[in-house]
Specification:
Helices cover about 40% and strands about 20% of the residues. It is of the alpha+beta class.
């Protein structure tokens, strides 16, 4: 099978005569194939996927463009997304990586706080997207507890039940948890979120500063991003100190992170299986009884 990369580049840059000098496969995570493509017009990152999910990379392209408008943290510039020969793709700027400078975590925390200061009247987003390979609905709502219940927790719990990954009792606990969300989580303006902010989704640029990658952007409760950073070990303490200095989280945020971690844990349960069930059940029992 011939490489689709020349066709992809000609579709994204129809007016340019790009000469491909090299193609190097790089780590694309669990879902996509990724390539650094060096051309006569510099390097590009191309991600591809054979999924049948429609318009798979369009949400990422919209997310990158929206993050770029905030002029806060760097994101790679996207050039286009689409489908050729049954392969879905996104083409974006290649960012060279390096080592963190001495202010890296401080700049990262302050930059995320600046991003979260961008707000919206409604929670959600104008378009849906994917989180991993799962469809992620962004149907808008006027309150966070309604959005989190209807577009995040309950749909995934029902899917998990249908796939034999949780019990009817777990779904009942989830319903009770959702009924208490207005009391569990403080009222906040809808903040512009990265949406999937774990340690694999940021880069250290060659200048030592942070950049965000692989976003799934929507307007939500900002503790969602903070909870995601803490899900698999946490970021450097300086990150949280700088964030709180710039845009203080409301008291008790550390103690309620599990409520916001329930959604990404349900995503992992559905994508990767029962090894995540124990953590999901613990949160459901703690907050849903």
């Amino acid at each position: 099978m011939h490489s689709p990369i020349p066709v992809i580049l000609s579709q994204v840059f129809p007016q340019e005569e790009l000469v491909i000098r090299s193609v190097n496969r790089i780590s694309g995570g669990d879902i996509n194939d990724a390539f650094m493509v060096l051309t006569n017009n510099g390097p590009f990152l191309i991600k591809t996927n054979h999924t049948s999910a429609p318009r798979f990379f369009d949400g990422e392209l919209r997310s990158l463009n929206l993050l770029a408008t905030t002029n806060t943290l760097t994101v790679p510039k996207p050039f286009g997304s689409g489908k050729v020969n049954g392969i879905q793709f996104i083409v974006m700027e290649w960012l060279n990586t390096g080592h963190p400078d001495k202010h890296f975590w401080e700049d990262f925390g302050t930059g995320l706080a600046s991003l979260h200061a961008h707000s919206n009247e409604l929670f959600g987003a104008a378009g849906d997207q994917y989180i991993g390979t799962l469809p992620q609905s962004n149907a808008q709502a006027t309150s966070w507890h309604h959005f989190y219940r209807d577009q995040r927790i309950m749909p995934l719990l029902r899917d998990a039940l249908n796939q034999g990954l949780c019990t009817r009792e777990d779904v009942t606990c989830g319903e009770r948890l959702c009924n208490h969300l207005a009391e569990l989580l403080p009222v906040e303006p809808a903040a512009l979120l990265h949406g999937d902010l774990w340690s694999g989704n940021f880069l250290i640029k060659s200048d030592g500063h942070p950049a965000l990658i692989d976003p799934a952007v929507y307007y939500g409760h900002r503790e969602m991003d903070i909870a995601m950073t803490a899900l698999f070990g946490g970021f450097d303490p300086v990150f949280y100190q700088a964030y709180n200095a710039a845009y203080p989280l409301q008291p008790g945020w550390q103690q309620r992170l599990a409520v916001s971690q329930l959604y990404p844990l349900l995503v992992h349960l559905l994508l990767f299986g029962s090894s995540y069930y124990g953590r999901v059940k613990t949160i459901l029992q703690e907050y849903g009884n």
